[in-house]
Amino acid sequence: MANWFASLFFAVLAFSLSCLAGKEIGLETGVWVTAGLVLWLTAGLLLSGPSQFGDNVCEATEKAESLEVKNSSPSTDDHLSNEQSLHAAVIELTRQLRSKEVSIDKLQAKLTEREFRRSLSRLATINETLAFTLKLLQDGKLTHADAVDQLRQEIEAAVGDLGLEHHCIQVGSAVASLPPGSFVILKSENTVEATAAGTVKDVVSTGLYAKDEDGKPHFISPSKINVYKL
Questions:
Q1: Quick check: 156 pLDDT over 80?
Q2: More confident call, 216 vs 60
Q3: Which pLDDT score, from 0 to 100, does residue 70 have?
Q4: Per-residue pLDDT, 52
Q5: In the chain, what is the greatest distance between 2 CA atoms, to the nearest angstrom?
Q6: According to a count of CB atoms within 10 Å of the terminal CB, is the N or C end of the chain lower?
Q7: What span, in angstroms and rounded, lies between the C-alpha atoms of 146 and 134?
C-alpha cells in the first residue's frame, strides 16, 4: 500500500512538472505527457533500486543465519554425544569397581574361613597327638619325659604352622623398654640392688605374636614375668 501511494504521488508530481515546463516552453500535449511519463518511470526505477538492495541484503543475512544454525547444530549434537558417552563411561566404571569390591570381599571371606578351618584342623591334630601319647604312656611304651617332649614338639610345630612367633624377654631387661601388650606381671619384688630396680627378675612363660601385612607384631599371648619394683 505504501508503494502504491508513493507511485501515485510521484506520478502526479512528474506530470505536473512536465505540464508546467511544456506551457513555459510551448510544447505540445503529447510531448509533455511523454516527458512526465519518462520522469515518473525514472523516479520509480531510482526508488525501487535501494529497496531491492535492502531486500537482497536481508535475504543474504537470513541465509547466513540459517547456515550458522545448521553449522552449530552438529557442534551441539557432538557436545551432547560426548556428555552421554562420558556419563556412560562413568556408570560402567562404577559398575566395575563395585564388582571388584564384591569379589575382594568374597575372597577375604574365603581366606578368613580357610584360616579358621586351618586353625581348627591343627588343633584337632594336637588333640590326636595328645591322645596317642597318653595311650603310649599308659601302655608303658613311653616315659613321662618322652611324652612331655613329644607334646612340646607337636605344639611348637603347630605354633609355626599357624604363623605365630615366640617373643622372648631376657632376664634383666628394663620393663619400661618392653613393647606394650607383650607381657603380664605376675609378681613384683623389692631388691637391694639399685641397678636391678624396674627390671625383669625371671620369665615364667614366653609370649606369642603374629605380624600383619606391615610387619607390625600383634601379641596373641603375652609373656608372664616377675619383676623388681622400682
A1: yes
A2: 216
A3: 52
A4: 45
A5: 170
A6: N
A7: 11
CA–CA separation, 167 and 183 (whole Å): 9
Q: Which three cell numbers stand for residue 176?
A: 619400661
Angle separating helix axes 144-161 and 29-138, nearest 10 degrees: 180
Q: Give the C-alpha separation, 123 to 155, whole Å.
A: 9
Rounded CA-CA distance 156/130 in Å is 14
* pLDDT of 125 strictly over 90: no
Q: What is the mean pLDDT of residues 90-111?
A: 77
**What span, in angstroms and rounded, lies between the C-alpha atoms of 151 and 135?**
13
- Which of 195, 191, 194, 198 has the alpha carbon at shortest distance from 225? 198
Q: What percent of the chain has pLDDT over 70?
A: 66
AA letter at 159:
V
Give the number of residues written for the chain: 230
Smallest CA-to-CA distance from 39 within 18, 9, 23, 8 is with 18
Distances (CA, A) of 38 to 24, 35, 148: 19, 5, 142
Distance CA 39, CA 125 (A): 129
Q: How is the chain split among helix, strand and coil, in percent rounded to 5?
A: 70, 15, 15
Report how far apart, in Å, the C-alpha atoms of 92 and of each of 81, 83, 89, 96, 173 are. 16, 14, 5, 6, 59
Beta strands of the chain (E only): which ranges? 165-167, 183-189, 200-205, 207-211, 217-221, 223-228
Model pTM?
0.46
Share of the chain above pLDDT 90, in %: 23
Q: What is the C-alpha radius of gyration for the chain, rounded to an integer number of angstroms? A: 56
